[in-house]
Design a protein that fits this description.
This protein has about 160 residues and is α+β, with helices and mostly antiparallel strands. The protein contains four helices and five strands, in the order βαααββαββ.
Length: about 160
């Protein structure tokens, strides 16, 4: 079986995963938001006028992972069993590092959901801090790991076909 987003007429379509085995699948992604020392100090102290930046970004990332099929064309709607979004503050570089994790038992992977969670969490941090620093930089956004499915375990340093 060849998986493709093109149907027999050469038109974009959702991949049919009906015949794929249900396996435990997970994915981890990361992103970062670099900001000015003033914006970082405000975030770290919890003094942002819009509220708790990291709590809001965590909820936004989780919600986004659950809505990935509504945001990314041709993605399958998935019943995620776990979504986690965590933050690590790097005061030396005035950066918020974002790590997301998604898991389910299903026929297709959760890479897009993990990447969407990390992306939307970063965008939420930007939105909440832009009044202090509109020049913040988001990225890189990267898949860090995936497990399950036909290819098994993958990391950026794996050999083979990739994600």
């Amino acid at each position: 079986m060849t998986l493709t987003h093109l149907n027999q007429q050469g038109e974009a379509s959702m991949v049919d995963v009906t015949d794929k085995d249900i396996t435990d699948r997970s994915a981890r992604a990361q992103s970062a938001v670099a900001m000015s020392s003033e914006a970082f100090a405000q975030l770290q102290a919890g003094n942002n006028k819009k509220g708790d930046v990291l709590a809001t970004a965590r909820i936004a990332g989780i919600q986004a992972a659950k809505k990935t099929a509504d945001l990314i064309p041709l993605c399958h709607p998935l019943a995620l069993t776990k979504v986690q979004v965590d933050f690590t503050l790097d005061p030396a570089n005035c950066t918020v590092n974002i790590a997301s994790y998604c898991r389910l038992a299903g026929r297709t992977g959760v890479e897009m959901e993990a990447l969407t969670a990390a992306s939307v969490a970063a965008l939420t941090i930007y939105d909440m801090c832009k009044a202090v620093d509109p020049a913040m930089v988001i990225g890189p956004i990267q898949l860090q790991e995936k497990t399950g499915g036909k290819r098994g375990h993958w990391t950026p340093h794996s050999t083979g076909e990739g994600a």
